[in-house]
Design a protein that fits this description.
It is built from 14 helices and 19 strands. By secondary structure, the protein is of the alpha/beta class. The strands form three sheets. Strands 1, 2, 3, 4, 5, 16, 17, 18 and 19 form a nine-stranded mixed beta sheet that branches. An eight-stranded parallel beta sheet has the order 6-9-10-11-12-13-14-15. Strand 1 (about 5-10) and strand 2 (about 15-25) form a beta hairpin. The chain is globular and about 70 Å long.
Length: about 475
């Protein structure tokens, strides 16, 4: 039996803050006791970690990543090996990635392909959602089988006609099935049919720069799709989780539905909280670095997102980590913004950026842990194994230095991408040591993990329903 004790830190969970020592046995939290008490003094261990003056946090749960995703004739630049290593550097110890069903193929084929990509390569634990691109009788039956084996969430797209797009009838059928099998539908809510019209009109006018990507993917079309998804879920009697909410108008739709007592949930991402259309408008095609969907919005939308996080009308902050290098990927489509690969790097910086939000007064420390650790674990059937520090939980633990300062930069990050979306941003707070199931993967700012340590983690159904 291996034993580790972490002494002297401020333990922060979604519900409590306490100066406590943490005892870890064989990869799990065995006990917590207030620092300096006889109970804590009785902890004995093979290894002692000093967290005096530091925070002791649950490992982050990033419920929205895209490692090795094929998109627009290329692939996301982070592999499961490089992407999960970067996650560990940023204090995230569990990622839930998206396996992809291609049109004309089964869910099983897509899931098996993603298992093959990830197995033996991950530095931290991982699970899968399933992208459903082809709704038919066989797909619906497969959804039941996947829920039974721990793939309990299914993503559909109201955007990207001809690629991932589902029409309202297909969406309704999948929602009806999830109402029966306990699965959770995750929705990319943008009116892709209308957006494609606006794209073609913009290109015909000669509007080709990256900033036009944000202008054609209008906030009202995100809000309209969000409203439609909510009503379809209501008809089906199914819960709904809307991914990467970026627009104030979409937050208003979620707020209204939740005020009506519906099981409707929303996720936003750091890029919408810290970046804006100003970045899309950067000169010399630099704006291509910031092309993602939903797009970055004008800065005034940020207040609604922060308010939604404080009022719990938005429950989760994930990254939608989907990096493409500027050189050789993003820049290949100069002259046509519609062909720029959609996605931003971010898996390494989510916990730090949200701590900066604590420093800036947007959220509390406990809310930080709630939206980054506990609620994503509950939403996707991982709690209390993940997302908290309590006896019996996996010993996914971050020792965090709240006073350290750092400057985010492509020169120092560990994601396999040649730019940082936050280049030059100065923030306060930094991950110091990370344990995954009790095993050190980051030790005092040195990588001590290995590919293959991360284990596939089946999930139960959503634990967040009202």
């Amino acid at each position: 039996m291996s034993r580790t004790v972490i002494r002297g830190g401020l333990v922060i969970t979604a519900s409590d803050e306490i100066h406590a020592d943490v005892l870890i046995e064989d990869g799990r939290i065995a006990a917590l006791a207030a620092t300096g008490t006889p109970a804590a003094g009785a902890f004995t261990a093979d290894r002692t970690l000093d967290a005096t003056g530091k925070y002791v946090l649950p490992g982050g749960v990033d419920a929205h990543t895209h490692m090795e995703l094929p998109f627009g004739g290329t692939f996301a630049s982070d592999t499961f090996e490089t992407g999960t290593r970067a996650a560990a550097w940023g204090g995230t110890t569990t990622v839930v990635d998206f396996a992809v069903q291609s049109v004309g193929h089964s869910l099983r084929e897509g899931l098996d392909a993603w298992h093959a990509k990830a197995e033996g390569n991950c530095a931290v634990d991982y699970g899968f959602h399933m992208i459903v691109s082809d709704v038919n009788d066989d797909t619906l039956k497969e959804m039941d089988l996947l829920v039974d084996e721990g793939v309990t969430s299914f993503k559909q797209f109201m955007a990207y006609p001809g690629v991932f797009y589902s029409d309202d009838g297909q969406i309704l059928r999948a929602m009806q099935r999830s109402a029966d099998n306990g699965g959770l539908i995750m929705m990319h809510a943008e009116n892709g049919i209308a957006i494609d019209v606006l794209v073609q009109q913009a290109l015909a006018r000669g509007e080709t720069d990256p900033r036009h990507h944000g202008e054609v993917r209008k906030a009202l079309l995100e809000a309209e799709a969000t409203h439609r998804a909510i009503r379809l879920a209501q008809v089906a009697g199914a819960p709904l989780y809307v991914v990467h909410v970026s627009a104030a108008e979409a937050v208003a739709e979620l707020t209204r539905a939740r005020d009506d007592g519906l099981n409707v949930f929303g996720e936003t991402c750091p890029q919408y909280l810290f970046l804006s259309t100003d970045n899309l408008a950067e000169p010399d095609f630099e704006g291509a670095k910031y092309v993602c969907s939903t797009p970055l919005r004008p800065r005034e939308h940020q207040a609604s997102l922060w308010r939604g996080l404080r009022t719990n009308d938005l429950q989760v902050v994930s990254t939608d980590h989907c990096p493409f290098c500027f050189v050789g990927q993003k820049e290949l489509d100069r002259g046509d913004f519609s062909k720029i690969p959609n996605g931003l790097p971010g898996v390494e910086h989510r916990m730090d950026l949200l701590h900066q939000a604590v420093v800036d007064g947007h959220i509390s420390r406990r809310r930080w842990i709630e939206i980054a650790c506990a609620t994503p674990a509950r939403m996707f059937g991982l709690y209390p194994k993940k997302g908290t520090l309590a006896p019996g939980a996996d010993a996914d633990v971050v020792i965090y230095d709240p006073g350290a300062e750092q400057v985010l930069s492509a020169e120092t990050h560990h994601m396999n991408v040649d730019y940082s979306a936050y280049e030059g941003k100065r923030i306060t707070g930094r991950v110091e040591t990370v344990l995954s199931r009790g095993v050190p993967v980051i030790t005092e700012r040195e990588y001590t993990g290995r590919a293959g340590h991360g284990a596939y983690t089946p999930r139960s159904t959503c634990q967040y329903l009202t």
